[in-house]
Description:
Blueprint: H1 3-40, E1 44-47, H2 50-60, E2 65-68, H3 83-91, E3 94-97, H4 107-115, E4 119-122, H5 155-172, H6 178-203, E5 212-217, H7 221-227, E6 230-236, H8 247-260, E7 264-268, H9 274-282, E8 288-292, H10 307-323
Parallel strand pairs: 1-2, 1-3, 3-4, 5-6, 7-8
Amino acid sequence: MSRTTAKQRVRVSAARLRRLIVGLLALVTAAAATACTTGQDQPSIVVTTNILGDITREIVGDEADITVLMKPNADPHSFGLSAIQAAELERADLIVHNGLGLEENVLRHVGAARESGIATFAVGEAASPLTFRTAGDGGPEDGEGQPDPHFWTDPDRVRKATGLIAEQVIEHVDGVDSNAIRANADRYGEELKDLTTWMEKSFDRVPEDKRALVTNHHVFGYLADRFGFQVIGAVIPSGTTLASPSSSDLRSLTDAMERAGVRTVFADSSQPARLAEVLRTELGGQVQVVELYSESLSAKGEGPDTYLRMMRANTTAMTDGLTGGTPGN
């Protein structure tokens, strides 16, 4: 090989290396620019539960980044935060949470963020909350007289909450288009109106003497109040899944079910149906256990992954369960 040819090859290799370095630098610069425009400049809203997260996304659209702390199929009463998630709360422009004691392991983090000056909005507190009531047998219940956080089982209250969340976003999150936020809220409000109408027509199939609910824990008080159902009782006589039933609680519940002629129990999908299964033994095996998505959405594409789909799926399951349209688990 001649000395001239070797030098030429070295020059070619050096030129290729320079082009490669320039290309890599261009990619790094583009990535950094993208991060600045889509991440750092984009306002941040952190939402505690995935049901509220879905509702907030419908309202906000592309106007801000939405971070949802609660994973799909989780229990809002018991989920906790990682160190990274706790840090996200501290960087948020607005924190949207349910309140009323729902997110029991997260509320202290929300409180700390509020004390540091971050805007927070407790949706449940603004949604005309009901209080927990006694069971159908009149026996005492844990949390009786306390505000019930499960307001989302009434779509009319969610419609009211939609407008309130929109105003909080406009007030506290800089850089969002207020007209776009209000337009999104109005559109979603119409979808919620349609949901209420559809639920009313669906529940019309359930005779008056069948409108009795027994659940894993007290979660459907708002739905019962809105659509004319009676809550007979719950396997866990409390508004939280962290409580446990006693043998006397179960006896009181089975007695109430016997008197009301109820043989259907609705168990939340995020909780094992073990406690509901106990009733099968207590009532001689003639109990239908129907699974609902009452406190958490499913993973994307795996079932009720939005609030609207969850409410429609639950309405269908409840209607079929109370009219004998679908066999139980």
